Amino acid sequence: MQGSIVGSIDLAQVVLYAFWIFFAGLIIYLRREDKREGYPLESDRGGRVVVQGFPAIPSPKKFRMANGEILFRPDRKADERAINAEPVARWPGAPLQPLGDPMLANVGPGSFAERSDTPELTSDGVPSIVPMRVEPTASVERRDADPRGMNVIGGDRRTAGTVSDIWIDRGEPQIRYLEVALADAPGKTVMLPMIFAKIDGFRKVVNVDAIFAAHFANVPGLRSPDSVTKLEEDRITAYYAAGLLYASPARAGGVL
Fold first, then answer.
1. Domains in the chain: ranges and CATH
2. Which residues contact 84 (CB under 8 A, 6 or more apart)?
């Protein structure tokens, strides 16, 4: 039609373009929101660059937690912990070599974030991860092997101790940790994350390949005997993860 402005535009085309614009905006919004923690990344080039990518880090937002606590994210709080490692070369991005005992250096696979030093809570406001001795309603399924009383065998095939209790998650029906009474330190117990444990019901042992028997003595401890904080969880898991690479010098060498 002569003089028509929208003669070549139909409703389906308008809806398609509107969807594209909405979807692009949604992606940008989600990318900004996932940068509320962990950004900007730290660079070994100092303050010359801000490693944040596109889009930029969002402005702080207030979050009201279930327990009434108020948090602001991002909080711009820098991690000021000393890095117990040094670069193997002088070029930027060179791998880090741990200083001292690599199992305790808290770098590489043994690194962890400084999460809140408080227990994870259930919707009822009680600690979520607890030993079965304080949760009488919990039990081991009769068709499964009960690890309590089993010997814990390290990656060097030596006995580290005996499982004294099971730590369960009240919010989810699963085992989170095994509590291990050490053989070489009577009265001392340490935590073993279930993801690093292999229960052999036939031989009645718990195998742990990540660390050796002697390493169990240095597993980070708990402040309370009947609960574990989020920071303690990360420290414990990081210690076992460090063993996957640093438990033996042979593990840190080349494969070929």
1. 9-78 (4.10.540.10), 119-250 (3.90.50.10)
2. 98, 99, 100, 104, 105, 106, 107
222, 207 Cβ separation under 8 angstroms: no
Q: Are the CB atoms for 207 and 198 separated by under 8 Å?
A: yes
Among residues 107, 89, 109, which one has the least CA distance to residue 98?
Answer: 107
User: What is the per-residue pLDDT across 201-231, written as a single tens digit (0 to 9) for each?
Assistant: 999 999 999 999 999 999 999 999 999 999 9
Q: What is the pTM of this model?
A: 0.83
**Looking at beta carbons, which pairs linking 56-61 to residues 24 or more positions away fall under 8 Å?**
56/32, 57/32, 58/32, 58/33, 61/36
Q: What is the pLDDT of residues 33-71, one digit of tens each?
A: 999 988 888 777 666 677 888 999 999 999 998 878 888
Helices (H) and strands (E) in the chain, counts: 3, 11
Classify strands 205-207 and 151-153 as parallel, antiparallel or unpaired.
parallel
Distance CA 32, CA 73 (A): 12
Decide if 223 contacts 169 (C-beta within 8 A): no
